[in-house]
Amino acid sequence: MPIPQNKDELLNAIKDSFSKLHKDYENIPNDLTRIDKVEGNVKNTQISVCDTLAYLIGWSQLVLKWYDKKSKNEQIDFPETNYKWNELGKLAQKFYADYVNWSFQDLLNEHKKVNNDILNLIDSLSNDELYQVNWYKQYTLGRMIQFNTSSPNQNVRKKIRNFKTSSYFKMATLFGSSNKGFLK
Prior knowledge:
By secondary structure, this protein is mainly alpha-helical. It is 61% helix and 5% strand. It contains 8 helices and 4 strands.
């Protein structure tokens, strides 16, 4: 998908990537959502389906936090307080830990909520506010939103689709939760 260049394209990119991703999440059995078999965000790691949602929620919430702080003329610690841009793997681990006790359904609902919050934020802004002013370094607000919403949605969707076509997933769904030893 091309990089959004204006408000309408940004809204469409987020809606489209969210919709496709949630369709892929729909038929994942709950007993497979906490098993680390999805390609991780750090090289040579595996995470769970629930971790992918925690990651997406975490980044979307950061976007909202950044906007809120900037609108109040408050200092923003990019990407997050106590994390640097070269520590994104550690930040991903924080997101996973933040949501480790949430159910798959609660994570899906939270992702939907934070996605709607992002869409409402975009709706409240003009195209000029989103794409005509540098917001962080050389990046516009629209680009920062895209970097942290539709792009990760697309990347996670590829990982979820790979997981769902894996021999592990096929065997686990064939044998189901009655064979707990297989699910480890």
